[in-house]
Amino acid sequence: xxxxxxxxxxxxxxxxxxxxxxxxxxxxxxxxxxxxxxxxxxxxxxxxxxxxxxxxxxxxxxxxxxxxxxxxxxxxxxxxxxxxxxxxxxxxxxxxx
Length: 97
Prior knowledge:
Blueprint: H1 2-7, E1 16-21, E2 24-30, E3 35-40, H2 47-62, E4 66-71, H3 72-77, H4 79-90
Parallel strand pairs: 3-4
Antiparallel strand pairs: 1-2, 2-3
């Protein structure tokens, strides 16, 4: 995932990983575009963890960020689709070849 996000620099999108934002550390962030990408494992499906994630996402959205949550399985099984989803969230024009 990190390698694919680094490639987006050629398109003008600079991602950082493990970014501290206030009291949170987010997985990946493109600060210029105010996009956060979180990659979640199965533990995030538990009701108490899902509630914490929802509160955290609401706080980050209140701060002006868009939060995109992806599952580990999506990243490992359909990385190309995940990259397209990130580009869509960035508002990038995507050429289909």
